[in-house]
């Protein structure tokens, strides 16, 4: 197990700015209160503690947002963020007009929370999606996927796939002379994991994805990696809580070598033959899961898929939630470049 | 197993963030960011004051250490949760709920934890990135003005100031200049409205003046004398130090004058004569009737043809007449006290003499020869003056002095001592103003008075820091040293009785805020701010002043009439005014080599 709490606290304080430390510690503390040892989850308290924001069709910093129902059978909601329409007193219908005559990216975003926490209307993710709109001139679709332990694998992936299909049928999301959906799949933590699996499904189904953006994606396996042992409990995250979340998401009786958790593990799928998209993978050097993330990157490379790895040595989990470090700004820059570069050209070879 | 919530505490998860979250003012102005909601965390849905961040962080740490293992879930499930947006309150309430152990100190880690968060200035994005991202221009600066930060900044400021003074002492003007720059920067990080920040600003300026002295200007001594009186008056109003000096001295004088028909007060610094109305009135009410009172006031010459001393004398004569006290006034104009000679007072035989020196004697001191303070090194003006004071055989000598050692041989020592002395002084100006009872004064008026009072103190500070040699007149020494000196000159201490102490305490409660304190030290009284004495009052008499010989009529004495006029000898200017005869003496006696002239003060230091 981890060393004394005091030692750990002092270590993380050395590299983590105060604001980040307060935010992530608060999450950690709150989340600790929600996970019951018997595997159940205090959803009521979770929703109480989660800070949420409403959608806002009035422009704020040039961005508007509105919620849509994607799939009525599952009550699947998504929040759409887009550049504000030029006409300030725009009727609601204008929100469903293309933001630009030129090609623009559509980013389908899957929020993090280890499959159990957060929603598309959680404040930190609302902020992040708004930033993506400004960053890339994109329309961002933040999917409110079903969460564990109430809904286990493959619900989250199904919801992700439903969102992608929905986007492909919305004419206003198509752009360019060829009227294509220029879609990127993006997610942090569990959302990154979802993005990968939805991209696999897309490749299997012939839907073209322009690129994957994975921020600290959540992967794992039965084996205890070196980084997990070294960083256990040091920077807000413990092996114990990782185990709990996998147990809550994966099918009953499954272990962490299940392909959902370990896509390039013993039970993983071969991607060589699939037109799987390009990937941008961002790894934080103080994330204990990094060995699995690096293994994922290697797996993609071995399968002949294009992947760019951005490794931020002194970054912790959640560094992308507060604009107070170089990590934040440089990674945003990477994302912008990735989207811009892959916008014009079709992703699959 | 459900948690109980306080439904009246804003349980709506949407309550924390409104449309204005992007419009929260950027915390670029450090002064205004204190107490403001932190914009970074506001974007995450939390309302926390920037100044509370460290407190919250420490609380989170403590919560984590108390919530170990599986107990945390069970206990937190039954806890009452407050509005999670108000992170400070939420953390505090969780601590009370889950860690009610009274032995668990609120901030056991506060000292260790205080400075251990990574310095966000290292993590802050470099400027060029901010320029590149137009959309990120709204990013607010990270604000860290917590109480710990303030204290650290203040400590650093003091350290820089003292280091600078040290460089000045060593003659390393380059280093001193560089440290001055750093000090100015450090000054920007503290609140200069009160406390160390305020007084530090003045000291920075003073050091600057010392390093880079301004060219001698035409302002000179003339205008500044009148100016000084204005400053003095405001200082008198703003705080009780001078008032304390006056009523303590008057009490001693009154007691010493008992049984004497003819009394003569020599005031080493007349100013506006604020001390004397009270004495005149007290003498008027004396059982057995008032004595004949003569007052000789020493003061700076007026440059513009005015006779300021005479004007004050006139006013006092008016007052004396109104209470039927026979009164005569004489003014002695002198630029420096050591130029004054006792014959200028024309003390008559049989008169009971009181010598009153309020914040004056220190001007007669010179450089101390050695750190141990051997005073026998050179004959200082003080020795000469004390000699003739004793020669007057005064019934009482009242001495009021600043309780500080601003005459140490080492500049650095003087500087440091002054820094803390005036810091306390300024604190008292600030604190006394807020708490004191007001004699009808409005808040705004008091602010102006206090501000001008600060200017008065600034002159003293400047003199201590910038001037040397004859120009440095603010050579304050502590009571203990005065005791020695006055004793060696042949004066014996007179206990200021308990009456004086009681009166002082009572008057303080009437006029001033809490924080002032009067103390008695071996028959002397000190007035200070909290535990720091700032001014001392003591009384002395000559050894053989117990002159039992009755007062004799002397040819220079005057016939008494109800109009309090005095004529004595041909030396005096007799004017037609039948209310009062008084005269500024010295200029008409200029046959001697003792020219009392304004020798022209080219510096910013004022002289008497």
UniProtKB/TrEMBL annotation, chain A:
It comes from the Eukaryota. SUPFAM superfamilies: alpha/beta-Hydrolases. Residues 107-320 form the Alpha/beta hydrolase fold-3 domain. It is found in: Nucleus. Keywords: Gibberellin signaling pathway, Hydrolase, Nucleus, Receptor. One of its GO terms (cellular component) is cytoplasm. Pfam families: Abhydrolase_3. GO terms for biological process: floral organ morphogenesis; gibberellic acid mediated signaling pathway; positive regulation of gibberellic acid mediated signaling pathway; raffinose family oligosaccharide biosynthetic process. One of its GO terms (molecular function) is hydrolase activity. Belongs to the 'GDXG' lipolytic enzyme family. PANTHER family: ARYLACETAMIDE DEACETYLASE (PTHR23024), GIBBERELLIN RECEPTOR GID1C (PTHR23024:SF492). This is (wild Malaysian banana) hypothetical protein.
UniProtKB/TrEMBL annotation, chain B:
InterPro entries: DELLA_N_sf, TF_DELLA_N, TF_GRAS. Residues 232-297 are annotated as: VHIID. GO terms for cellular component: nucleus. Signal peptide: none annotated. Keywords: Gibberellin signaling pathway, Nucleus, Transcription, Transcription regulation. GO terms for molecular function: DNA-binding transcription factor activity; sequence-specific DNA binding. Residues 38-102 form the Transcriptional factor DELLA N-terminal domain. Pfam families: DELLA, GRAS. A motif (VHIID) lies at residues 263-267. Residues 311-343 are annotated as: Leucine repeat II (LRII). Residues 586-608 are annotated as: Disordered. Residues 466-541 are annotated as: SAW. The keyword Transcription regulation applies. It is found in: Nucleus. A motif (LXXLL motif) lies at residues 361-365. Residues 598-608 have a biased composition (Polar residues). GO terms for biological process: gibberellic acid mediated signaling pathway; regulation of DNA-templated transcription. Belongs to the GRAS family. DELLA subfamily. Transcriptional regulator that acts as a repressor of the gibberellin (GA) signaling pathway. Probably acts by participating in large multiprotein complexes that repress transcription of GA-inducible genes. The DELLA motif is required for its GA-induced degradation. This is DELLA protein.
